[in-house]
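Study this protein:
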Amino acid sequence: MLTADDWNDFAATYAQIQRESRLPIEQDVTATLRDWYPQPQWTIADVAAGSGRYALPLSVAYHTVAMSDWATNMLALAQQWLVAHHRTNFTTTVSDWYDLPAGVADLVFVSQLPTLTVADLPKLTALTRQVVAINLQTQQVNALITAVANALTLQIPRVPQCHPHLAAAITRWADQPGRDFHLRTFNYDRREPLALADVLPEFGVPITVSQMQALARDLTPGQDPHVMLPVTTHYTFTLQSWHQ
């Protein structure tokens, strides 16, 4: 399990990855929350806020965003990001989310918290005065990786940042009779150049010369495993929300 020091060391790289992402998930999540909860006077607690990807649009949609993270460097980058976009309606707190006080905000928002489990949901729900919202990536399907897996009869490699089973478990826990529960999925397709040789290490198994030649023959023009191909990756995110 990564520690706060690990995340501090990784903060700059993580922030760069977030900034370079071409998926508009933070905008779509914020627009959906505004649709579900049109309460511009609310305070939002962005728990495990990372480098501020979601905090920025949330600070536009709502009165105040209280960002918390246990990694100091992450919060410093998040603050720089919001200030660079002329946002002033935010606070930062260096803290493990488990140490936050109950009733910290009207809406408690969490996205892609790696350590989150269903057992944490009562504690997370106790943090809010009104609503909890959790966003998770639940699918990532790369067309070239899928083609290789099918050709070699291999399992498609697991994507560490995808949590479909956790999302399903959260739904079972939160979607109870009498509780105001919302769920929405967001789907995106992104095409980018990728070579066959680039994806083979993802499988973590030796690929023989004959297998490589067969793959190159079937999947690439000119039977060249290094030629760049236009490859589509499909992404799915699941946003769930419920009242306290």
